[in-house]
């Protein structure tokens, strides 16, 4: 798949004509990238997480297809997909919490998870994920780009170069924002 193929398909979506056909053609072009991002995110989870890679990809794609979004190019599409993936994970965690009503979950520190970029999505840690989501929204008020870096790295499972490409910034900027965001979130969550 070339960047041009995806960008061309996204342009067809913007034109409006043949939207359903364009969406059907887009999925095979982006599926492996979305699956890879979802897999990287979920593979860092402890056993017992309740959302499969396939379910996360499909739910993310459904949400993306429902949006009336104007994607500039492939990188912009993948950056938006990381945000949508975050929303899917958070919504699922809230559903788990509603079912379990907390289930006797004890708060645990997020320091190790943030330092290592580990995910937080297991039944036992759904409450922490929701807390992280709220803190990330507060970070967005302080530093929008740092919040987007967290969405790409933590929720989208993107590497530093992939995040840099998606956000159209230099890798050193991603590293700096990632470091700043981890420190800020650690302080907020302690």
Query: Structural class, judged by helices and strands?
Result: mainly alpha
Overall mean pLDDT: 77
Radius of gyration: 17 Å
Query: What is the total domain count?
Result: 1
Q: Percent of residues in helical segments?
A: over 70%
Query: How many helices?
Result: 9
User: End-to-end distance, in Å?
Assistant: 43 Å
Regions with pLDDT < 50 over 5+ consecutive residues? 102-121
Listing every helix as H and every strand as E from the N terminus to the C terminus, the arrangement reads: HHHHHHHHH
> What best-fitting shape do the alpha-carbon axes yield?
globular
> Major sheet: size, sense and barrel closure?
none
Please provide a brief summary of the model.
This protein has 190 residues and is mainly alpha-helical.
Write the layout of secondary structure elements.
Elements: H1 3-15, H2 19-43, H3 53-66, H4 74-100, H5 111-116, H6 126-142, H7 144-155, H8 160-167, H9 171-189
Helix pairs in contact: 1-2, 2-3, 2-4, 3-4, 4-6, 4-7, 4-8, 6-7, 6-9, 7-8, 7-9, 8-9
